[in-house]
Amino acid sequence: MSEPKRHKRSSSTLQMSLIPIPINELTSIIPVPSRLAPTGDQYVTYLGRTQSERFNTLFEGFSISFLGSMFAYFISFVIGDFLATCLGIVFFFWPILSPEFKAYQRNWELVGGRDLVDVWMKDEGIFRGIPRDKRGLYGAYYVAKIKDVCVVDDVLAEAEEEYDLEDFLGYRRDKDEMEALIGIPWKLRLKLMDEENREMQVHCRMSEEYLDLQPGMDMIGVLLSTSNEFTELAAMSDFCVLDEEGPIAWVGDYPYLAKDTFLRTLDSNGILSSIKLM
Predict the structure, then answer these.
(1) What is the CB-side half-sphere exposure of residue 52 using CA atoms within 13 A?
(2) Residues 6 or more apart in contact with residue 71 via CB below 8 angstroms
(3) Which of 48, 55, 82, 220 is the most buried (most CB within 10 A)?
(4) Which of 68-72, 107-111, 128-132, 138-142 has the weakest average pLDDT?
């Protein structure tokens, strides 16, 4: 990405491209492990969204639970009853605990163990003498429009290998023929462009909720960068697709954003109303 301009909340005209996020907002909309527990959406993601995914998750969970309980019993002769009982309880409840642990791990991977820091943080205090690109991750709202939407079989597919979204009318995630054939599902490809003509390409697993997406729709998500000027992209959240009436879809393989808090924050900052006026 080219170097973006910095925008302050006090500006009378909101520039709809990259909008820096204060640290108190950033830590409330992204459930990083050190601050917030995984959201319900994150738990459900690892529990499974389709019947086959839930079956596979439960089968894996109960298998680990059974084998782990047997292991705890036999190891009790070595480590003692108390520790073996504690271990056995963890294994017994593994089908319930597993999605929670996996969500914690996924949230940690987003930040890679780095702190979230305020984009307007001064040089004084704990950051004195530390280069800006070593302080942690800065956050910004990225507001753009959908330039093009299509479906591909691989994220590295060339333009001539793209399929029109209209060809997938009636598509259902739980009946993905590509996944049934080769084990890899279809991917949605979105090409985004903001007001400063910066382009971004986003991929995620295809789902029936994306069938109504069209070029020209507004999208907003959170970008994380090691630079407070956002010259390098370190990570990104899922994206919310908006129309005049509000959100119509959430695009992404994993729901990093706390959706209700995210939308309330956008509304309280006047960002939602500004998007509708674009």
Answers:
(1) 7
(2) 87, 91
(3) 220
(4) 128-132
pLDDT level of residue 153 (50, 70, 90 thresholds): very high
Q: How is residue 180 written in tokens?
A: 């049934």
Hey, where are the domains in the chain?
18-30+116-276, 41-111
Closest CA to 265 of 9, 102, 26: 26
Q: Is the dihedral of CA 222, 224, 232, 138 positive or negative?
A: positive
Q: What's the CA gap between 139 and 194, in Å, rounded? A: 17
Looking at residue 115, the DSSP 8-state letter turns out to be P
CA separation for the pair 36, 244 (Å, rounded):
31
Single-letter code of the amino acid located at 51 = Q
Nearest-CA neighbor of 216 among 182, 255, 246, 243? 243
Residue 73 CA to residue 87 CA, distance in Å, equals 9
pTM of the model: 0.79
- For residues 206 and 85, the model is more confident at 206
CA-CA distance, 207 to 185, in Å (whole number)? Answer: 10
21 near 7, Cβ under 8 Å? no
Tell me which DSSP letter residue 270 carries. T
CB 22 within 8 A of CB 7: no
As given in the structure block, the two tokens for residue 52 are 């086959």
Half-sphere exposure (CA, 13 Å, Cβ side) for 276?
Answer: 11
Token pair belonging to 266: 């956008």
Is residue 221 classed as helix, strand or coil in its secondary structure? Answer: strand
Q: Which residues contact 184 (CB under 8 A, 6 or more apart)?
A: 153, 154, 178
The token duo for 41 is 């959406």
Which residues fall within 8 angstroms of residue 157, CB to CB, at 6 or more apart?
Answer: 189
